[in-house]
């Protein structure tokens, strides 16, 4: 079981954490939402909970709660710029279907 960041995503996260001046890493999770059932949650983590799983990728800690790991195992988080748009992109091998807007998925 693992979750990774591309170098581009790790660089972006390191920059955000440096700008914030604090943070243990990046917390990834899922929640029930959207037309396909699940939506990604991404936020900065100031501390690691005892039950959390921690992965390190390109010098960035990726923190995941055990319930979300079932849906995120094997995921690679990328950061991409396309024209005027930029943002994080989840490359999740567990996704069976996603909604048209790309905001939710199911496994």
Describe the protein's architecture and organization.
The protein is an alpha/beta fold. It has helices at residues 7-20, 66-72; strands spanning 4-5, 25-33, 37-45, 53-57, 60-64, 76-82, 85-91, 97-98, 105-106. It has a four-stranded mixed beta sheet with strand order 3-2-5-4. Strands 1-6-7 form a three-stranded mixed beta sheet. The mean pLDDT is 86.
Proportion in helices: 10-25%
Mean pLDDT: 86
**What separation lies between the terminal Cα atoms?**
16 Å
Main sheet attributes: strand count, strand direction, barrel closure? 4 strands, mixed
Order of helices and strands: EHEEEEHEEEE
Shape: globular
Q: Structural class of the helix and strand makeup?
A: alpha/beta
How much beta, percentage-wise? 35-45%
- Rg over CA atoms: 14 Å
Give the uncertain stretches in residue-range form: none
Q: Can you list the strand order of the major beta sheet?
A: 3-2-5-4
Number of helices: 2
